[in-house]
Batch of 4 targets.
Target 1
Amino acid sequence: MALSARNRLAGTVRSLETEGLMAEVVVETDDGQEVTAIITSGSADRLGLEEGAEVNAVVKATEVMVENR
Amino acid sequence: MALSARNRLAGTVRSLETEGLMAEVVVETDDGQEVTAIITSGSADRLGLEEGAEVNAVVKATEVMVENR
Amino acid sequence: MALSARNRLAGTVRSLETEGLMAEVVVETDDGQEVTAIITSGSADRLGLEEGAEVNAVVKATEVMVENR
Amino acid sequence: MALSARNRLAGTVRSLETEGLMAEVVVETDDGQEVTAIITSGSADRLGLEEGAEVNAVVKATEVMVENR
Amino acid sequence: MALSARNRLAGTVRSLETEGLMAEVVVETDDGQEVTAIITSGSADRLGLEEGAEVNAVVKATEVMVENR
Amino acid sequence: MALSARNRLAGTVRSLETEGLMAEVVVETDDGQEVTAIITSGSADRLGLEEGAEVNAVVKATEVMVENR
């Protein structure tokens, strides 16, 4: 993989909602955890996202926080 | 949960490396995917993070990108 | 506090505006400074945010810039 | 102000620690709350930051989360 | 420049679209590359942005990723 | 391109400095503007970054601010 972003979670698009400039994409990972992404509607169109699509949720490591359980 | 950040992935700390001001925390989710977080050393200390600790990796939805597979 | 994010400013919700997928929350800190947050409408609903609610504005340290006055 | 970032908290630099590429700047706002910023050492040098300096902590609204108290 | 954010790309506003709380600003840099910013509508108004305006696109270094070509 | 991040600036690595967990990469775009990225040392290694390498600087649109000139 050619991109520096460290985190890449494989999953399937469970829902895609577009309103105005923004789109909310819910990705279900293979073990059933959900990851929600807010991207631009323009990017959602460009990627051809739709329910059932196989995607990765990608996150730069500096954006991840840690929380004790 | 009282925090607006939408994404919370349950896992276990697999490694913790601290150098200077920053710490790199690798969290393995329950299905074996890895999430790497860069946080401050001060926060790693305050949370008492160590290998084997049960934590959540937390990410604001606006920080998540989507990538076609 | 169990979350690695370092910054937590106590205040009161002064306004909450929801349009489509996003919500804009203005928090007034105890000394009268304003902090504006853009979160998802879904999170605003989940937290039950409304004017007058006592909240913290939370920011990861890597997201903060510094500016000379 | 000419920058789109909405949040600008006036304060004083209480501590500045530089290690390698990164610097940790603790800003105390006028009502005594602390805001910690992680910036590059290069930027800390360029701004001439030092304890006692009067600065603003600046944050883009999309980076702010909200938490119930 | 008084702000710690390292990256400042000079360009011209090529399009500005506002919908609800958010605005999408496309900046064309002097060599013809495009940079898209999502900011609040409130900030777009406050800055008086419009097509043809001369602006800088500003990005904190921790938000930049690198990708091999 | 398969990634939702909208901004992708083509350039050449002008300097790469690694200290501890973090790396600072300065990319010079084709028209001579500089973009600095802070990524993990691990990612810099994985990408095989070095001076002269042809790369893209990649930024999510929600991370870009706009400033009047």
Target 2
Amino acid sequence: MSERKEFRTLVSLEDAKKALIPFYKRDIEEVPLNECYNRVLARNVYSRVDVPGFDRASMDGFAVKAKDTWGADEESPRPLRIKGIIHAGDKPDISVEPSTAVEIATGAVMPRGANAVVMVENTDTSGEDVNVRKPVSPGENVMHTGADIMMGELALRAGTRLTSREISVLAAVGLDRVAVYKKPRVGIISTGNELMMPGTILEPGQIYDVNAYAVGAGVIENGGEPVYLGIIRDVYEDFQKAVVEATKKYDIVVTSGSTSAGASDMMFSTVGSFGKVLVHGIKIKPGKPTIIGEANDRPFIGLPGYPSSAITIFNEVVAPMIRHMSGYPEKARREVTARMAVRVRSEGGREVLLPVGLINEKDALSAYPIEKGSGAVSSLLDADGYIEISEDTHVIDEGDKVSVKLFSEEITFPDLLMIGSHCLGIDIITEMMSEKGYTVRSINVGSMGGFRAIRKGIADAAGVHLLDESGVYNEPFLRSLNVEDAVLIKGYVREQGLILPKGNPSGIKGLEDLPGKQFINRTKGSGTRTLLDMELKKIAEGRGTTLQVLTESIPGYDVEAKTHNAVASAILMGKADAGLGIKTVAEQNGLDFIPLRDEEYDFVVKASSMNKPAVIAFMDILRSAEFKKRIAELGYKPQA
Amino acid sequence: MSERKEFRTLVSLEDAKKALIPFYKRDIEEVPLNECYNRVLARNVYSRVDVPGFDRASMDGFAVKAKDTWGADEESPRPLRIKGIIHAGDKPDISVEPSTAVEIATGAVMPRGANAVVMVENTDTSGEDVNVRKPVSPGENVMHTGADIMMGELALRAGTRLTSREISVLAAVGLDRVAVYKKPRVGIISTGNELMMPGTILEPGQIYDVNAYAVGAGVIENGGEPVYLGIIRDVYEDFQKAVVEATKKYDIVVTSGSTSAGASDMMFSTVGSFGKVLVHGIKIKPGKPTIIGEANDRPFIGLPGYPSSAITIFNEVVAPMIRHMSGYPEKARREVTARMAVRVRSEGGREVLLPVGLINEKDALSAYPIEKGSGAVSSLLDADGYIEISEDTHVIDEGDKVSVKLFSEEITFPDLLMIGSHCLGIDIITEMMSEKGYTVRSINVGSMGGFRAIRKGIADAAGVHLLDESGVYNEPFLRSLNVEDAVLIKGYVREQGLILPKGNPSGIKGLEDLPGKQFINRTKGSGTRTLLDMELKKIAEGRGTTLQVLTESIPGYDVEAKTHNAVASAILMGKADAGLGIKTVAEQNGLDFIPLRDEEYDFVVKASSMNKPAVIAFMDILRSAEFKKRIAELGYKPQA
């Protein structure tokens, strides 16, 4: 242990960014016009042609000398002799003399001698003449040579991002190749003995490589081109070779992982051996074990191993460099202002980037912290972005305004946030809400977590099914858990029981048979687990022992499934002999079921959310005949 | 003329969109994980694995039985015998017995018998023992099997757009191929005898094809894949063949152009011959001559020829279909709320999509109409989006709130809007403003247009150099043009004169020699043109004639260049024998110059803009030593 190194010279996030500034540079390449979408123009474009390149009719009608039409009106139309016709694309060999006209199409070349066009709607023809019923002034319905863009004019400025309208201008001035900033090529390496490529089969101890794909998507989003260089084990020579080769070929090299103390030592000394370490770690949470170095005059960034940390540091440190190189505007991500839904504490002493979820409130966004462990990939889905808490900030109060940096431009925030117990009925609600144009985010944390989320004011609604010792569902917990300013809305009745493999090979007859059988449990605080514990406690008491002793005799009692379906899957896969869950899920999966009791699945709704359009829509759905029909199909019963 | 057809059965924009709904469908394809960025998930993803797949240490430290640490503190650490070490990726063959510990790295498999990890910071080692200085509870610093994502759990829902965070989850559950909605392939055809590909040389009457590239960029932006099928002439057989072939190969076929009365007849009858015409035109401005049809069960949309009309109808009618097919959210474009800067009238009787520019005001956006002819491509650059004016709306008042549909997601609005005369000094101001972080949009409409833009309240500032009959610059026009609530800020002095080809081959000595020479003029209302007309008027009077007669003897007097550079270019290219402009531009282009008089180039600033940060920065720049130095380099003189 003694040779392990702590990160001794942590720098601020700001200084970490500054360490990379020497590598901010831009290369230029020419691309075909039809491939320049979303690229950034690298040079000013001066038009080499006039647009249009000739005096052009801008209406269908007749090219005339304006003077010849003066005085014309509906009563006394002016007849002009038609001398011919000019179509768009024709090179006209015809001219307009006094008292004559030439039929002309939109976009066609104006004939010599004509200085205006009478719209076809203001004429009629009789024999060889056209009768003009409305006068025109010189230049009317004519676009002069260069009136749109003149030869020599600055048509587009360097630095412009090319969207449909800029590309239109490039086409109009005749460019078929466009000078744009080169997308930096970013070599992406994942390091770690535990990593495997998605699509392979894992052995114990292995996990799939996530960071390569997360970083690759981030590279694209910021204007770069990712190159996936695969997984490198924690072997000095392999790592050195991979990084040295990569810095020769790519503009930027990003690795991730191997930042646990032992492996990161290896990285430090390796980078030191072939290049220069610029930053030894950042005074920030998460992301402390970040390495910045250089080799072959190219920057090298070693990101932390946890995906959420890796993405955060990538966004803060690497993305601005990629954006500069590709000419994108400096501001990396959309920021939105929101109000904190709860009080947040920080230890202080280092900057904290706190992941938050966002929810649409009546006229503002509300932010709530995402508190899963930093190792959880799924927490990325619940978080929409993060807030920066400075070193000296210790508390952000409920209601304080915060600026949230979004993880992605494409994020849309839910209209309804449900945090609580999982139920198939919530999937139906989500679907029916979506048909009404509302988006729902539902986070499964069990009934107890649901009550807490309402108490804290985070969630709009929570699905709950908690049984009180007195045998009453849900309602007593509003008081016992101090959930104020909330309304309990009765939902429906589900049948809970034991889910067993088809044919019940272990011959389980009830909860009393669980000891010695491989069990799969549900999340702590979930209604299902609470029910299980109440029933097991009765059995334990009957046997003159305690709940703890009884549960220690049930292997797998500690394994927590977050959803009913996950329980069914574990049993289908042979990973467990039994689990507790609802009848519907057992039936859907063709599994055996021993009923234990009916339970009441209800919704706790935050009082201040009751007027939100999304909550009104939610309540309408709960009351609707369609919802009742669809939950009946699931085998649920309406509330008595 | 008699056989020409007017569009008789115009439908509303809403009905035009509805005509395409039968073609809204979605196909699914599988793509590799590293190519799914920004695609939309087509099927629910249920995890086939537990994440993590084993009980995992979430910190560097020692795996222990929690009980063995209870009671430990700084004074009385608990010694545990170290039984070995487990690295990330190891398959451990080791177990923790009472009073023992196993060293463990973040991400490594927990050994049998251990139920918690003591962080390395809370330990020290002595010989074969580790001394634990802080107790842990069961499960502390351990992530249990499936705690992140459990086998069978719904990891991602169909319909989710895949950004970095969703891709992280797909990788974590081990997917290497992802079912996404297929990007619809859109065949793009341009029609018209006048069209040529960019990169070719134009002959008289020809213009470059703009719409193919504008539409192609729009297809990408909305999630589709453009296929460029080239230019088809207005020939029945060619058009029929191209469209029939395209509808066999592509999901959607978009043509543009050939919508002038004669050509569109051809299109109608052609589409009728091989398919079905669904819509004969839309009751909207711009975009009336739009055709919607079907052939081979595929939709066919014929857009108008003018680029701004084509893009508008594409956005309204075609983009929603492409978005549906690729699974993108229905809302095609960002909408922003703005206040109209000026009163706008509409004829009524049909819906109008009015292009507007947007400008950042103190706490809101302000929208001003873009009034260039619909044939101008450059007008696309000045417009940021458009507002929808319904059939029955005749007036939108100044200050009314309007909803602006943006042309592109990537648009950013300028902080300072300058509308007026063009000057090289404005390019310097733009550059210096950009260094201060402010964006400037400058629209060149001449001095008179600048005064008008300030009077209407559209622009923040206008560069002007208008000479009064009394010989005073700019100031008298505030009164004579009724420009109220504005401030005149003195700028600098420029030298105006005749720009001539090098060596002055025509031997021009002054304005009196212009008759009979090919001239290039500036925009009506520009200060340069006003100065020219004042001087020419004196000459005409001296010769006993009128200005009009004199100018009729100067070929090219009607040709309007929008910038000084454009004048110089025309002379360099041999297109003109003389033009009026500033000395600086003549010198920069190596052209001859005959001075006429010094003129005062000043800025009119809208009074209500004076407190805008961007205007304050602009005023600072005008006063700065750097600006004075840089305009001196251009040959301008500071104001006396």
Target 3
Amino acid sequence: MLKHNTYFDGRVQSLGFERNALKATVGVIAPGEYHFNTGAAERMTVVSGELRARLKDGAWQTYAQGSSFEIPANSGFDVQAVGGPAAYLCEFLGG
Amino acid sequence: MLKHNTYFDGRVQSLGFERNALKATVGVIAPGEYHFNTGAAERMTVVSGELRARLKDGAWQTYAQGSSFEIPANSGFDVQAVGGPAAYLCEFLGG
């Protein structure tokens, strides 16, 4: 029921779950920069720490604990954990 | 750097990390009831879904998304995920 995912040699890991037909993961990003592509649109919420993210053709923005950003479907984003690992909630929208 | 933990035949899983000397995990609890013991004191925050928890000698209380409860050191608590899996942030206090 819960699925463990690992990316970038274990530097990004997540746990997938589904509730009320909403698919989501919680995960942790180790310091560094990573690129993810999206299928369904996603909402990323910073649960602990701080993330920087850059949507396709966008500028880097900083997201503090408690803040969110959304990535369109069939797109992608670069993400950095700053100053230490950061934990996030990723909700898959309309997917 | 990130540590994957699995409990109760995979029905509770977490990812451990450390930031600014604060140890923490993010995890997911599948529907059911579980008991955990504490070493260091812990603060549990519901990241997605809903948890019910009962501290030692206490009554069951419901914690909605965004709410927190703390468990003393060297104690324990029972926890239930209600209505589907719930995601949490667990911060280890003073440990």
Target 4
Amino acid sequence: MRLVVPLQGVVQGRGGLVLGSLLPCALFYVLQLYLKRKNRSSPSSSATSVSELPAGIPRTPSRGLLSSKTSTGPAPISSRAASVAGPSDSPYYVGFKKCREDPYHPASNPNGVMQLGLAENQLSLDLLRDWLAEILKDLALDGEEGNLSVSGLATYQPFDGLIELKMAVAGFMSHVMQGSVSFNPSRIILTAGATPAIETLSFCLADPGDAFLVPSPYYPGFDRDIKWRTGIDLIPAPCRSTDNFSLNIATLERAYNQAKKRGIKVRAVLVSNPSNPVGNLLNRETLYDLLDFAMAKNIHLISDEVYAGSIHGNEEFVSIAEVLQTQDFDRSRVHIIYGLSKDLSVPGFRVGVIYSFNEHVLSAASKFARFSSISVPSQRLLVSMLADSKFITRYVGQNKKRLQKMYALFVDALKQLGVDCVKSTGGFYCWADMSKFIRPYSEKGELELWAKLLNVAKINITPGSSCHCIEPGWFRCCFTTLSEDDIPVVIERMMIVINNHNDYH
Amino acid sequence: MRLVVPLQGVVQGRGGLVLGSLLPCALFYVLQLYLKRKNRSSPSSSATSVSELPAGIPRTPSRGLLSSKTSTGPAPISSRAASVAGPSDSPYYVGFKKCREDPYHPASNPNGVMQLGLAENQLSLDLLRDWLAEILKDLALDGEEGNLSVSGLATYQPFDGLIELKMAVAGFMSHVMQGSVSFNPSRIILTAGATPAIETLSFCLADPGDAFLVPSPYYPGFDRDIKWRTGIDLIPAPCRSTDNFSLNIATLERAYNQAKKRGIKVRAVLVSNPSNPVGNLLNRETLYDLLDFAMAKNIHLISDEVYAGSIHGNEEFVSIAEVLQTQDFDRSRVHIIYGLSKDLSVPGFRVGVIYSFNEHVLSAASKFARFSSISVPSQRLLVSMLADSKFITRYVGQNKKRLQKMYALFVDALKQLGVDCVKSTGGFYCWADMSKFIRPYSEKGELELWAKLLNVAKINITPGSSCHCIEPGWFRCCFTTLSEDDIPVVIERMMIVINNHNDYH
């Protein structure tokens, strides 16, 4: 219409409307055809060459003339797609890209980029391999000794997970939390990873324009997992180094009130426990306070506990579910995110968990689960694995020892470099203070050091600014993708950059 | 605030604001505690019993009094969750529920509900079983004869699918389309089923409040898959029995203009080919017209081709991709939905495909794919299966013969009952005309017959109204979950209801 209307003023008189509508369309179409033919050299790409049409199909090359409006460019994509379609310039993703393009290998690519930005645990893959090698020998389909049935693998199954796997996952969660809580399988919704678990839960708890409060520094993936498609915003509530980055209810209160003043509806507070990226735990008292806060504000509480079983320190992990067992709170506002990617080291299996005490959320999430179902053969394999309690006990125990050892080695090595880490208890990372090495003392200085570490030292770590940390100079360093032999390499590479960086300024 | 403000008027004078705010909050909190203690008998559920707190954790039972606002009920869930949380009264879902609760089995539950509402193909599961049984014997992990590696199974892999599986799926798509098209693996995004494929694509093409045009009758799942979370609306463009429910561009044009008048932005037209629920195909000329239409309106064209390989008639299936190979259109507005659930009968594996000619959409969809990734062990299994070209050729050939046979038997049996079906070519269903059996001739009459078939005859079929068919009395009957022996049972049960239904009125 935009094309046609101005021309109606040019073609006046009787028939002006018709001519004013049809003529420009026809002209425009012919012009388009001309330009296309001119620009394309491929013999198969001419729209008007009737001889190339499949035999027997009459084509009227003039059919486009019937269109009341011609196209004026590429069809627009959605604004949510447009905002993610381009390459990301966030350090978190830039670092990943570098690692993908030039991955370090001690033998085959010793000058490649070392990945300390990805929270993946490769310390215990050998245990998984041994178990899988054994089980593969015994798998058999139907028949007399069959332990699998084709209809149990290939046909439609409940989208929110097999009940057998829900039961097995509930048991595993309880196991990694050392029996301090028991989980009810009917409160579990399984999704294809913790990423869709948090997104699905978000879809359930808030509408576009609403917001969640998130103590910062927080996991950079939350911005992506929650904000991209749900239309929900995240509001950081900044924690500080003077408190060891521990959660403080007064900070939450302040962030809540500021949001309210801006007219934003806060629907939930989202915490990670163990904290990602800091690695410290929420103690019982803080959990009580969080529940009080959620109650007082009439909002939800989401506890991301994906590292609950990846504890390397001596402090006790307390699940929000454990607190609810002993205290009388409104449970319907409490939801836990879990998954097998961290504690069982199987991110490739894509198993996430929504554990909710809210029946309406469970009902909606079980329906939304059709958008992120776990492939059934993998579910069956995991049912077998988790049912093997001897293996699971051995795995959890050994994995913990390896985590402890690597954490101690890595933090010690950083210390020798002059880098201190916050004393942490869980997770695959440490939260390292490099503020004394940055000039200027600002996000700019932090990102300059990060860029040198990535491009010169070829070490990918996550800068605090990607985690919405308000103090510059902090970095998340994941150590579970490293071998012990890699640690001196990391330290040596870091040292050169840190020394040069300091000399330079 | 709603609680506080009215009471400020009651507590007048100096200090009225403070007393009016704090007093009701405190009173309300104490009342809540009292009611909770009264209602709960469990000794572990008292909020004020300090003796039950874990040792060493000081708790102030009065801390809640510090809250500036107390909770006034359950925390609200999102409107999108609330709208799906309750049970659905749509016949499409009511029928599923009945089948789940009381499934027919010829031996163990001969009076159970027969499932003709679910488009799942169980005709060739034996072929899958045999292949899986063979492959399971040969699977081995690492080692000398290993064909699997643990890091290739357990660790993070690209969220939008393994490149090996993209290549295999591209080959399979070409195979089931009899080599008429070749597909480029780099245009493929893999998702955990066709359901997240269509949702992800929708997220990419339109924003909340925008709409897609969909020729009706259409697959009832579209309303769920597209509307639930994206905020996009679907506008039916009604096709009619006088045209054999074939797509008509004039109808699309009308629906488009009406939407425009109402101020709605139409972003795409969505077709299924073969049509679901009718089963007829879009011929080449209609595909050209659709492309013209999309071009003229500057909108996208989505072609759902999940049944492309499930052709049981003699007409030739033409993919929109085939037309694009020979014609010069703006490809960037064309997107295909595919999956392995129908043509390979593995819905439990959850493999969906977005095939797009638009680089921006591919880029955004590959990022959104993290919300619906396919579990990697299942991907590896499918890579093996699809690479076995001897098996795939045999499977596709035999499955087609079985489909043809069942379609002919079932449609013939319906005919003997006096029920005619639209002549169809693809899909797992037929589109049956029972309009002469309904009284009144309206949606009400249709749903009365549907309810009797479900509750009396215990046969679940999908009424046309669930598919937005504007003519009453049409039903989608899936025949691929039946065995040949089931057909006489279905017909006998239907006959009793149809005869009684007629006599009754």
